[in-house]
Amino acid sequence: MVTARLGTSEALLARLQSSVRAAPHPIATVARFDHPDGPEHGEIELSKAQDDALADLEYVLARDPRFEHLRDKVRETAVAFLFECSANRSRDNVPAFVSTYGKVPMRRLCYLTVEYLTVAAEVTFLGQRFIPVSDERVPPALGRFSLQPPVGCVVEVAIEGTDLGRMAARARANVEHSLRLLRIALHENLNLHDRQLRFTVADGYSFGGHIAGWQSAPAATYDLGLSIGLVGLAEIQPVARLPLEPESDVDRQADLATRWIERAMFASEPLISLLFLFFALEALLGRKSATEKGHELSLKQMVLSHIIDGRFEHPSETYLLYDKVRSAAVHGENSPSIDEGLVNEFAWLVRRTLSQYLAFADRYGLQSRGRLLARLDQAPDFALCVEWLRSNGGLEWARYVMKNAPSRRVSRS
Protein backbone atom coordinates (compact mmCIF):
# COMPACT_ATOMS: atom_id res chain seq x y z
CA MET A 1 0.00 0.00 0.00
CA VAL A 2 0.99 3.64 -0.30
CA THR A 3 3.31 4.70 2.49
CA ALA A 4 2.08 7.20 5.07
CA ARG A 5 5.48 8.87 4.85
CA LEU A 6 4.72 10.29 1.41
CA GLY A 7 0.93 10.43 1.44
CA THR A 8 -1.80 9.47 -1.01
CA SER A 9 -1.55 9.58 -4.79
CA GLU A 10 -3.89 12.59 -4.81
CA ALA A 11 -1.61 14.44 -2.37
CA LEU A 12 1.47 13.74 -4.50
CA LEU A 13 -0.31 14.77 -7.68
CA ALA A 14 -1.33 18.05 -6.02
CA ARG A 15 2.22 18.61 -4.78
CA LEU A 16 3.67 18.14 -8.27
CA GLN A 17 1.01 20.39 -9.77
CA SER A 18 1.81 23.13 -7.24
CA SER A 19 5.54 22.84 -7.86
CA VAL A 20 5.03 23.38 -11.59
CA ARG A 21 2.94 26.48 -10.97
CA ALA A 22 5.32 27.92 -8.37
CA ALA A 23 8.28 28.35 -10.71
CA PRO A 24 7.67 31.30 -13.05
CA HIS A 25 11.28 32.47 -12.70
CA PRO A 26 14.47 30.86 -14.13
CA ILE A 27 15.43 27.70 -12.23
CA ALA A 28 18.49 25.51 -11.91
CA THR A 29 17.64 22.58 -14.18
CA VAL A 30 18.44 19.07 -12.91
CA ALA A 31 16.15 17.12 -15.26
CA ARG A 32 14.59 17.58 -18.68
CA PHE A 33 11.78 15.58 -20.28
CA ASP A 34 10.43 15.49 -23.82
CA HIS A 35 6.67 15.44 -24.33
CA PRO A 36 5.36 11.82 -24.25
CA ASP A 37 4.06 12.29 -27.82
CA GLY A 38 7.52 13.25 -29.06
CA PRO A 39 10.09 16.06 -28.72
CA GLU A 40 8.37 18.03 -31.48
CA HIS A 41 5.55 18.66 -28.99
CA GLY A 42 7.90 20.39 -26.57
CA GLU A 43 10.01 19.72 -23.49
CA ILE A 44 9.90 20.63 -19.82
CA GLU A 45 12.74 21.48 -17.43
CA LEU A 46 12.58 20.61 -13.74
CA SER A 47 14.23 22.03 -10.66
CA LYS A 48 15.50 19.78 -7.89
CA ALA A 49 12.26 20.22 -5.92
CA GLN A 50 10.14 19.42 -8.95
CA ASP A 51 12.23 16.38 -9.85
CA ASP A 52 11.91 15.14 -6.26
CA ALA A 53 8.13 15.62 -6.42
CA LEU A 54 8.01 13.64 -9.67
CA ALA A 55 10.08 10.80 -8.18
CA ASP A 56 7.85 10.64 -5.10
CA LEU A 57 4.75 10.56 -7.30
CA GLU A 58 6.16 7.67 -9.35
CA TYR A 59 6.96 5.77 -6.15
CA VAL A 60 3.45 6.20 -4.77
CA LEU A 61 1.59 5.49 -8.02
CA ALA A 62 3.47 2.21 -8.46
CA ARG A 63 2.32 1.13 -4.99
CA ASP A 64 -1.27 2.36 -5.15
CA PRO A 65 -3.56 -0.57 -6.09
CA ARG A 66 -5.71 1.79 -8.19
CA PHE A 67 -2.78 2.62 -10.48
CA GLU A 68 -0.60 -0.50 -10.32
CA HIS A 69 -2.01 -1.63 -13.68
CA LEU A 70 0.14 1.09 -15.29
CA ARG A 71 3.20 -1.08 -14.53
CA ASP A 72 6.17 0.19 -16.60
CA LYS A 73 4.18 3.20 -17.87
CA VAL A 74 4.13 4.95 -14.49
CA ARG A 75 6.89 7.41 -15.42
CA GLU A 76 5.42 8.12 -18.85
CA THR A 77 2.02 8.79 -17.26
CA ALA A 78 3.49 11.02 -14.52
CA VAL A 79 5.46 13.04 -17.11
CA ALA A 80 2.28 13.46 -19.17
CA PHE A 81 0.66 14.89 -16.04
CA LEU A 82 3.56 17.34 -15.75
CA PHE A 83 2.86 18.68 -19.23
CA GLU A 84 -0.87 18.83 -18.49
CA CYS A 85 -0.20 20.94 -15.38
CA SER A 86 2.14 23.22 -17.32
CA ALA A 87 -0.37 23.72 -20.14
CA ASN A 88 -3.40 24.15 -17.86
CA ARG A 89 -2.25 26.22 -14.91
CA SER A 90 -5.62 27.61 -13.89
CA ARG A 91 -7.52 24.35 -13.36
CA ASP A 92 -7.11 21.45 -10.94
CA ASN A 93 -5.77 18.59 -13.08
CA VAL A 94 -5.77 16.01 -10.28
CA PRO A 95 -9.40 14.78 -10.52
CA ALA A 96 -9.08 14.19 -14.28
CA PHE A 97 -5.87 12.17 -13.76
CA VAL A 98 -7.50 9.99 -11.09
CA SER A 99 -10.61 9.48 -13.23
CA THR A 100 -8.61 8.61 -16.35
CA TYR A 101 -6.00 6.27 -14.90
CA GLY A 102 -7.46 5.01 -11.63
CA LYS A 103 -9.34 1.70 -11.57
CA VAL A 104 -11.50 0.17 -8.86
CA PRO A 105 -9.45 -2.63 -7.21
CA MET A 106 -10.80 -6.17 -7.58
CA ARG A 107 -10.72 -8.69 -4.73
CA ARG A 108 -9.36 -12.17 -5.49
CA LEU A 109 -8.06 -15.22 -3.67
CA CYS A 110 -4.42 -15.93 -4.46
CA TYR A 111 -2.89 -19.35 -3.80
CA LEU A 112 0.83 -19.71 -3.16
CA THR A 113 2.77 -22.91 -2.59
CA VAL A 114 5.24 -23.38 0.25
CA GLU A 115 8.20 -25.74 0.05
CA TYR A 116 9.36 -27.90 2.99
CA LEU A 117 6.32 -27.09 5.14
CA THR A 118 3.62 -29.77 5.35
CA VAL A 119 0.15 -29.65 6.91
CA ALA A 120 -2.13 -32.66 7.32
CA ALA A 121 -5.20 -30.47 7.82
CA GLU A 122 -5.99 -26.77 7.51
CA VAL A 123 -4.32 -24.49 10.04
CA THR A 124 -4.64 -20.70 10.35
CA PHE A 125 -1.73 -18.47 11.31
CA LEU A 126 -2.03 -14.67 11.44
CA GLY A 127 -5.26 -14.84 9.48
CA GLN A 128 -3.80 -16.88 6.62
CA ARG A 129 -5.04 -20.38 5.86
CA PHE A 130 -2.45 -23.10 5.30
CA ILE A 131 -4.14 -26.00 3.51
CA PRO A 132 -2.95 -29.42 2.30
CA VAL A 133 -2.05 -29.76 -1.37
CA SER A 134 -4.82 -32.36 -1.68
CA ASP A 135 -7.55 -29.98 -0.46
CA GLU A 136 -10.40 -29.48 -2.96
CA ARG A 137 -10.01 -25.68 -2.72
CA VAL A 138 -6.50 -25.82 -4.17
CA PRO A 139 -6.47 -24.89 -7.89
CA PRO A 140 -5.10 -27.51 -10.29
CA ALA A 141 -1.38 -27.55 -11.01
CA LEU A 142 -0.60 -25.40 -14.03
CA GLY A 143 2.78 -24.42 -15.41
CA ARG A 144 5.09 -23.33 -12.59
CA PHE A 145 2.24 -23.64 -10.07
CA SER A 146 3.32 -27.12 -9.02
CA LEU A 147 1.92 -29.27 -6.21
CA GLN A 148 4.75 -31.79 -6.30
CA PRO A 149 7.37 -32.17 -3.53
CA PRO A 150 9.11 -30.27 -2.04
CA VAL A 151 5.81 -28.33 -1.98
CA GLY A 152 4.06 -29.35 1.24
CA CYS A 153 1.14 -26.94 1.56
CA VAL A 154 -0.71 -24.05 -0.06
CA VAL A 155 -1.53 -20.67 1.49
CA GLU A 156 -4.75 -18.88 0.57
CA VAL A 157 -4.54 -15.07 0.63
CA ALA A 158 -7.31 -12.55 -0.06
CA ILE A 159 -5.82 -9.63 -1.99
CA GLU A 160 -7.05 -6.51 -3.80
CA GLY A 161 -5.64 -4.67 -6.79
CA THR A 162 -5.83 -3.92 -10.50
CA ASP A 163 -2.94 -6.03 -11.78
CA LEU A 164 -2.74 -9.76 -11.10
CA GLY A 165 1.06 -9.83 -11.15
CA ARG A 166 1.36 -7.01 -8.61
CA MET A 167 -1.41 -8.59 -6.54
CA ALA A 168 0.49 -11.88 -6.48
CA ALA A 169 3.63 -10.03 -5.40
CA ARG A 170 1.77 -8.45 -2.47
CA ALA A 171 0.24 -11.79 -1.53
CA ARG A 172 3.75 -13.27 -1.55
CA ALA A 173 4.99 -10.47 0.71
CA ASN A 174 2.14 -11.23 3.15
CA VAL A 175 2.99 -14.94 3.22
CA GLU A 176 6.72 -14.28 3.57
CA HIS A 177 5.96 -12.02 6.55
CA SER A 178 3.91 -14.77 8.21
CA LEU A 179 6.58 -17.40 7.55
CA ARG A 180 9.28 -15.11 8.95
CA LEU A 181 7.39 -14.71 12.21
CA LEU A 182 6.53 -18.41 12.27
CA ARG A 183 10.21 -19.41 11.95
CA ILE A 184 11.29 -17.16 14.79
CA ALA A 185 8.38 -18.07 17.07
CA LEU A 186 8.89 -21.80 16.57
CA HIS A 187 12.42 -21.53 17.94
CA GLU A 188 10.76 -21.74 21.35
CA ASN A 189 10.47 -25.47 20.63
CA LEU A 190 14.02 -26.52 21.38
CA ASN A 191 13.52 -29.85 19.61
CA LEU A 192 13.29 -28.15 16.23
CA HIS A 193 16.47 -27.70 14.18
CA ASP A 194 17.20 -24.58 12.15
CA ARG A 195 17.12 -26.66 8.99
CA GLN A 196 13.51 -27.56 9.69
CA LEU A 197 12.63 -23.88 9.66
CA ARG A 198 13.94 -23.02 6.21
CA PHE A 199 10.58 -23.47 4.49
CA THR A 200 9.98 -20.89 1.79
CA VAL A 201 7.42 -19.65 -0.72
CA ALA A 202 7.79 -21.29 -4.14
CA ASP A 203 7.72 -19.23 -7.32
CA GLY A 204 4.32 -20.36 -8.64
CA TYR A 205 0.94 -18.79 -7.83
CA SER A 206 -2.67 -19.25 -8.94
CA PHE A 207 -5.86 -17.21 -8.83
CA GLY A 208 -7.91 -20.30 -9.63
CA GLY A 209 -8.99 -21.90 -12.90
CA HIS A 210 -6.54 -21.19 -15.69
CA ILE A 211 -5.13 -18.00 -14.13
CA ALA A 212 -1.67 -18.99 -12.91
CA GLY A 213 1.81 -17.57 -13.13
CA TRP A 214 5.16 -17.41 -11.46
CA GLN A 215 7.60 -14.89 -10.04
CA SER A 216 11.24 -15.78 -9.60
CA ALA A 217 12.39 -16.01 -6.01
CA PRO A 218 15.06 -13.42 -5.12
CA ALA A 219 17.63 -16.21 -4.76
CA ALA A 220 16.88 -17.70 -8.19
CA THR A 221 19.86 -18.53 -10.42
CA TYR A 222 19.96 -18.69 -14.23
CA ASP A 223 22.44 -20.43 -16.49
CA LEU A 224 25.08 -18.36 -18.32
CA GLY A 225 26.88 -19.51 -21.42
CA LEU A 226 30.42 -18.13 -21.18
CA SER A 227 31.64 -17.11 -24.63
CA ILE A 228 34.93 -15.76 -25.97
CA GLY A 229 33.23 -12.39 -26.36
CA LEU A 230 32.15 -12.27 -22.72
CA VAL A 231 35.63 -13.30 -21.56
CA GLY A 232 37.12 -10.55 -23.71
CA LEU A 233 34.75 -8.02 -22.13
CA ALA A 234 35.73 -9.14 -18.63
CA GLU A 235 39.45 -9.03 -19.35
CA ILE A 236 39.46 -5.35 -20.30
CA GLN A 237 37.76 -4.23 -17.08
CA PRO A 238 40.02 -2.56 -14.46
CA VAL A 239 38.86 -5.02 -11.79
CA ALA A 240 40.33 -7.93 -13.78
CA ARG A 241 43.86 -6.84 -12.85
CA LEU A 242 43.37 -7.42 -9.11
CA PRO A 243 45.75 -10.15 -7.85
CA LEU A 244 44.79 -13.03 -5.57
CA GLU A 245 47.05 -11.62 -2.84
CA PRO A 246 46.83 -7.79 -2.92
CA GLU A 247 50.14 -6.07 -2.22
CA SER A 248 49.09 -2.42 -2.04
CA ASP A 249 46.58 -0.70 0.18
CA VAL A 250 44.64 0.45 -2.88
CA ASP A 251 44.33 -3.14 -4.12
CA ARG A 252 43.43 -4.47 -0.66
CA GLN A 253 40.51 -2.06 -0.40
CA ALA A 254 39.43 -2.85 -3.96
CA ASP A 255 39.57 -6.57 -3.17
CA LEU A 256 37.45 -5.97 -0.07
CA ALA A 257 34.97 -4.03 -2.20
CA THR A 258 34.68 -6.91 -4.70
CA ARG A 259 33.83 -9.28 -1.86
CA TRP A 260 31.06 -7.01 -0.60
CA ILE A 261 29.73 -6.53 -4.15
CA GLU A 262 29.68 -10.31 -4.60
CA ARG A 263 27.77 -10.74 -1.34
CA ALA A 264 25.27 -8.16 -2.58
CA MET A 265 24.77 -10.17 -5.77
CA PHE A 266 23.96 -13.33 -3.79
CA ALA A 267 21.74 -11.63 -1.18
CA SER A 268 18.06 -12.39 -1.70
CA GLU A 269 16.70 -9.29 0.06
CA PRO A 270 17.08 -5.80 -1.51
CA LEU A 271 17.89 -4.11 1.80
CA ILE A 272 20.72 -6.56 2.55
CA SER A 273 22.09 -6.08 -0.96
CA LEU A 274 22.03 -2.32 -0.49
CA LEU A 275 23.90 -2.51 2.81
CA PHE A 276 26.60 -4.73 1.27
CA LEU A 277 26.94 -2.30 -1.63
CA PHE A 278 27.46 0.59 0.79
CA PHE A 279 30.11 -1.45 2.61
CA ALA A 280 31.86 -1.81 -0.76
CA LEU A 281 31.62 1.92 -1.48
CA GLU A 282 32.93 2.79 1.98
CA ALA A 283 35.84 0.38 1.51
CA LEU A 284 36.83 2.48 -1.49
CA LEU A 285 36.03 6.06 -0.53
CA GLY A 286 34.92 6.15 3.11
CA ARG A 287 36.70 7.84 6.02
CA LYS A 288 36.09 6.88 9.65
CA SER A 289 36.76 10.47 10.73
CA ALA A 290 34.05 11.98 8.49
CA THR A 291 31.30 13.73 10.46
CA GLU A 292 28.77 13.84 7.60
CA LYS A 293 29.67 10.53 6.01
CA GLY A 294 26.80 10.39 3.56
CA HIS A 295 27.66 13.77 2.08
CA GLU A 296 31.38 13.13 1.93
CA LEU A 297 31.03 9.68 0.40
CA SER A 298 28.64 10.97 -2.26
CA LEU A 299 30.81 14.00 -3.07
CA LYS A 300 33.95 11.89 -3.46
CA GLN A 301 32.05 9.56 -5.77
CA MET A 302 31.01 12.58 -7.83
CA VAL A 303 34.56 13.99 -8.02
CA LEU A 304 36.01 10.63 -9.02
CA SER A 305 33.39 10.27 -11.76
CA HIS A 306 34.17 13.74 -13.09
CA ILE A 307 37.90 13.06 -13.18
CA ILE A 308 37.58 9.74 -15.04
CA ASP A 309 34.50 10.31 -17.21
CA GLY A 310 34.22 14.11 -17.30
CA ARG A 311 30.56 14.21 -16.26
CA PHE A 312 28.75 16.15 -13.54
CA GLU A 313 26.43 13.65 -11.87
CA HIS A 314 24.19 14.68 -9.01
CA PRO A 315 25.33 12.87 -5.83
CA SER A 316 21.89 12.85 -4.22
CA GLU A 317 21.05 9.28 -5.28
CA THR A 318 23.89 7.92 -3.15
CA TYR A 319 23.35 10.45 -0.36
CA LEU A 320 19.62 9.80 0.02
CA LEU A 321 20.09 6.03 0.05
CA TYR A 322 22.82 6.45 2.66
CA ASP A 323 20.85 8.87 4.81
CA LYS A 324 17.35 7.38 4.57
CA VAL A 325 18.02 3.66 4.16
CA ARG A 326 21.57 2.64 5.10
CA SER A 327 21.83 4.73 8.26
CA ALA A 328 18.32 3.79 9.42
CA ALA A 329 19.01 0.07 8.99
CA VAL A 330 22.45 0.14 10.62
CA HIS A 331 21.13 2.09 13.63
CA GLY A 332 18.16 -0.19 14.21
CA GLU A 333 15.51 2.10 12.79
CA ASN A 334 12.70 1.29 10.38
CA SER A 335 14.12 2.08 6.93
CA PRO A 336 11.99 2.88 3.87
CA SER A 337 11.15 -0.05 1.62
CA ILE A 338 13.27 -0.40 -1.52
CA ASP A 339 12.80 -2.58 -4.55
CA GLU A 340 15.14 -4.68 -6.66
CA GLY A 341 15.20 -2.14 -9.47
CA LEU A 342 16.54 0.61 -7.22
CA VAL A 343 19.21 -1.71 -5.83
CA ASN A 344 20.24 -2.76 -9.34
CA GLU A 345 20.73 0.89 -10.31
CA PHE A 346 22.84 1.54 -7.23
CA ALA A 347 24.84 -1.66 -7.81
CA TRP A 348 25.76 -0.42 -11.27
CA LEU A 349 26.86 2.88 -9.74
CA VAL A 350 29.07 1.13 -7.17
CA ARG A 351 30.65 -1.17 -9.76
CA ARG A 352 31.42 1.86 -11.91
CA THR A 353 32.97 3.61 -8.90
CA LEU A 354 35.19 0.58 -8.35
CA SER A 355 36.41 0.77 -11.96
CA GLN A 356 36.99 4.52 -11.65
CA TYR A 357 38.85 4.03 -8.35
CA LEU A 358 41.25 1.55 -9.98
CA ALA A 359 41.65 3.69 -13.11
CA PHE A 360 42.44 6.75 -10.96
CA ALA A 361 45.02 4.81 -8.94
CA ASP A 362 46.68 3.54 -12.12
CA ARG A 363 46.72 6.99 -13.73
CA TYR A 364 48.66 8.55 -10.84
CA GLY A 365 50.56 5.48 -9.63
CA LEU A 366 48.86 5.52 -6.22
CA GLN A 367 49.46 2.62 -3.82
CA SER A 368 47.87 4.04 -0.66
CA ARG A 369 44.14 4.61 -0.32
CA GLY A 370 44.86 7.53 2.03
CA ARG A 371 46.89 9.25 -0.67
CA LEU A 372 44.23 8.46 -3.23
CA LEU A 373 41.56 10.17 -1.13
CA ALA A 374 43.86 13.13 -0.50
CA ARG A 375 44.52 13.40 -4.23
CA LEU A 376 40.77 13.57 -4.84
CA ASP A 377 40.43 16.41 -2.33
CA GLN A 378 43.24 18.36 -4.00
CA ALA A 379 42.10 17.82 -7.59
CA PRO A 380 40.78 20.83 -9.55
CA ASP A 381 37.72 18.69 -10.23
CA PHE A 382 36.86 18.89 -6.53
CA ALA A 383 36.43 22.64 -6.75
CA LEU A 384 34.48 22.30 -9.99
CA CYS A 385 32.07 19.85 -8.39
CA VAL A 386 31.66 22.05 -5.32
CA GLU A 387 30.80 25.03 -7.48
CA TRP A 388 28.34 22.94 -9.50
CA LEU A 389 26.64 21.74 -6.32
CA ARG A 390 26.52 25.26 -4.92
CA SER A 391 24.50 26.33 -7.97
CA ASN A 392 22.59 23.17 -8.88
CA GLY A 393 22.54 20.87 -5.87
CA GLY A 394 19.62 22.35 -3.97
CA LEU A 395 19.51 23.70 -0.42
CA GLU A 396 20.85 20.53 1.24
CA TRP A 397 24.04 20.49 -0.83
CA ALA A 398 24.47 24.25 -0.79
CA ARG A 399 24.44 24.09 3.02
CA TYR A 400 26.96 21.26 3.07
CA VAL A 401 29.48 22.80 0.68
CA MET A 402 29.28 26.21 2.39
CA LYS A 403 29.97 24.57 5.74
CA ASN A 404 32.66 22.09 4.66
CA ALA A 405 34.29 23.69 1.62
CA PRO A 406 33.78 27.47 1.96
CA SER A 407 37.21 28.36 0.64
CA ARG A 408 37.29 26.03 -2.35
CA ARG A 409 36.68 28.02 -5.54
CA VAL A 410 37.32 27.32 -9.19
CA SER A 411 40.38 29.10 -10.48
CA ARG A 412 39.43 31.47 -13.32
CA SER A 413 42.99 32.02 -14.47
Walk me through what this model shows.
The protein is of the alpha+beta class and 413 residues long. The protein has 3 domains: 9-101, no CATH class; 106-214, no CATH class; 228-404, no CATH class. The chain is 50% helix and 11% strand. The protein has 14 helices and 8 strands. It has helices at residues 9-21, 48-63, 74-87, 94-101, 164-185, 228-235, 249-266, 270-285, 293-309, 316-330, 340-364, 369-378, 380-392, 395-404; strands at residues 31-34, 43-46, 106-115, 123-125, 128-131, 151-161, 200-206, 212-214. The strands form 2 sheets. A 6-stranded antiparallel β-sheet has the order 4-5-6-3-7-8, with helices on one face. Strands 1-2 form a two-stranded antiparallel ribbon. A hairpin with a 5-residue loop joins strand 7 and strand 8. Helix 1 (9-21) crosses helix 3 (74-87), helix 7 (249-266) runs antiparallel to helix 8 and helix 13 (380-392) packs across helix 14. The chain is globular. The termini are far apart. Residues 407-413 have low confidence and may be disordered.
Fill in the keyword field for this structure:
413 residues, alpha+beta, 6-stranded antiparallel sheet, 14 helices, 50% helix, 11% strand, disordered C terminus
